[in-house]
């Protein structure tokens, strides 16, 4: 037994197919044709706006943007093809589906219509069922197009927000870089006939390497090379903390200095400094970072150096006669284990000898060959530096040589730093 379906149900079902189409612009110089087509469109629930020519339609489109355009091809004055082309040239936020009504069916004529911007064609006289099917197909296309447009707008808005956030972060990082640079107030300083020079090249705005020096009197100097685990902001904050603990400007806060009864200062043993730093770092809850370090104290009269190595690359002695020698005992990084007992070792330099402390940013740099520089590569790199270079110029030349060997694909992947002590430089 059949059951009649209410007209309201039919209309709602029909509108569901055309949810992206509400306003239809119907352009035809034939009043009869407009009346026939408009009747079907209105029955399906569309708002229909009529125009008897392409010129009139263009004027109408200056004030509103239809969702769908049905236009006759052959019209006096502006043809449907010209109207379509002009319509597409008009700017609009939303795309409108354009159907040309024509008796033309030749392939070259269809190609002309597509080139002008038409989406579909209907042969006259227009069949209502076919018209409905073409509009339904156009509605699906508009649905997808507008969904894509909404997503693109969302992406664009998100990118704008990210750009603003990036600019803010970039400004903060530039300021952070200035603050971090202040941790190393001077990159070269003479101590009598000896000299300490520093190199610090972060791979980004800020880095996790730290170098420094300080001296409480004319007889001794302390210097160090530190590499904090990880990269970026967290590591940089750790270097700021360490810079305060080893500050040359504030001896009372410097763990490397000890105040005497007469008010003067002397340098603590390197092993003691390493143990104090380890204890201080582990006392701060929530800190997961650790760091490697070479910390040295040099007797400026005798050339005897006392050093502690805490997981940092092995120091390199550059003898005045051209020989090079790696020294050290390895050791455990600072901040990994509680109550560590650090051992220290001695190195005796003769006039003209140099001691180079460096981060693994040197030895682990990837070369154009795909391999890492490693220790022997560092020695070869030093051999390629100009022999007469000294102090900061030597370190700058060494870094320049490294950049010439770096892989262009990977570039500078880690911070690069070094400390050079020259004993009674010749």
Give the helices and strands, then pairings.
Elements: H1 7-17, E1 23-27, H2 31-43, E2 47-51, H3 54-61, E3 68-72, H4 80-89, E4 97-102, H5 107-116, E5 120-123, H6 128-181, E6 188-191, E7 194-201, E8 209-214, E9 220-228, H7 232-245, E10 257-259, E11 265-267, H8 270-283, E12 291-299, E13 304-310, E14 316-318, E15 324-326, E16 344-348, E17 354-358, H9 360-363, H10 374-384, H11 391-405, E18 416-422
Parallel strand pairs: 1-2, 1-3, 3-4, 4-5
Antiparallel strand pairs: 6-7, 7-18, 8-9, 9-12, 10-11, 12-13, 13-16, 14-15, 14-17, 17-18
Low-confidence residue ranges: 1-16
Q: Which CATH C-level class of the largest domain is it?
A: Alpha Beta
Strand fraction band?
A: 15-25%
**Rounded average pLDDT:** 88
Give Rg in angstroms.
39 Å
Give the name of the CATH architecture of the largest domain. Answer: 4-Layer Sandwich
Keywords: Hydrolase, Phosphoprotein
Protein name: Fused response regulator/phosphatase
Written overview of the protein:
With 426 residues, the chain is an alpha+beta fold. The chain folds into two domains: 145 residues, Response regulator (Rossmann fold); 241 residues, PPM-type phosphatase domain (Phosphatase 2c, domain 1). It contains eleven helices and 18 strands. A hairpin with a 5-residue loop joins strand 10 and strand 11. It is rod-shaped. 34% of the residues are buried. The N terminus is likely disordered. Keywords: Hydrolase, Phosphoprotein. This is Fused response regulator/phosphatase.
For this entry, give a set of tags.
Phosphatase 2c, domain 1, 2 domains, single chain, Rossmann fold, 426 residues
